[in-house]
């Protein structure tokens, strides 16, 4: 019941941005509510197709996490600080400059190694002929043999 009631709420901001900044921008359609209902229906269908295509989201979440966490937590803050302190100072012996370069280097290593290993896991999970169940459960393949 909670999923049923909160799923439309989760997509409210996304649909509001799509409607106001892309579809309804610079025009007044005759039936804006019908357009919004269509966009909401497409939003739900896209989520449903995603769930059908990728039933086990663990590997996909690992790829997104490996990619985004290193960029958001390490690389972007270092680049932003480099840009903000460009005309001011990087501190005594330019310690902030070296710190930011080390953060960018560490973030890049984490980005590439984490994304590589997560993609390998994703290929192993989604690239098999038989579906894999979570928590190391084995799903017996449905293979029929001719009667003897």
UniProtKB/TrEMBL annotation:
<dbReference type="InterPro" id="IPR013057">
    <property type="entry name" value="AA_transpt_TM"/>
</dbReference>
<keyword id="KW-0812">Transmembrane</keyword>
<keyword id="KW-1133">Transmembrane helix</keyword>
<keyword id="KW-0472">Membrane</keyword>
<dbReference type="Pfam" id="PF01490">
    <property type="entry name" value="Aa_trans"/>
</dbReference>
<feature type="transmembrane region" description="Helical">
    <location>
        <begin position="37"/>
        <end position="54"/>
    </location>
</feature>
<protein>
    <submittedName>
        <fullName>Glutamate transporter polyphemus-like isoform X2</fullName>
    </submittedName>
</protein>
<feature type="transmembrane region" description="Helical">
    <location>
        <begin position="6"/>
        <end position="25"/>
    </location>
</feature>
<feature type="domain" description="Amino acid transporter transmembrane">
    <location>
        <begin position="3"/>
        <end position="119"/>
    </location>
</feature>
<feature type="transmembrane region" description="Helical">
    <location>
        <begin position="101"/>
        <end position="123"/>
    </location>
</feature>
<feature type="transmembrane region" description="Helical">
    <location>
        <begin position="60"/>
        <end position="80"/>
    </location>
</feature>
<dbReference type="GO" id="GO:0016020">
    <property type="term" value="C:membrane"/>
</dbReference>
């Amino acid at each position: 019941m909670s999923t049923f009631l909160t799923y439309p709420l989760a997509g409210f901001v996304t649909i509001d941005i799509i409607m106001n900044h892309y579809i309804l921008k610079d025009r007044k359609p005759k039936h804006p509510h019908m357009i919004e209902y269509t966009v909401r229906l497409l939003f739900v269908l896209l989520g449903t197709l995603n769930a059908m295509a990728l039933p086990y989201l663990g590997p996909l979440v690992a790829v997104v996490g490996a990619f985004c966490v290193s960029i958001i937590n390490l690389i972007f803050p270092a680049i932003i600080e480099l840009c903000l302190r460009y005309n001011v100072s990087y501190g005594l012996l330019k310690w902030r400059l070296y710190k930011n370069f080390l953060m960018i280097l560490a973030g890049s290593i984490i980005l590439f190694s984490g994304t590589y290993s997560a993609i390998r896991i994703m290929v192993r999970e989604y690239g098999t002929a038989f579906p894999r169940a979570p928590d190391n459960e084995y799903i017996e393949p449905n293979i029929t043999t001719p009667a003897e």
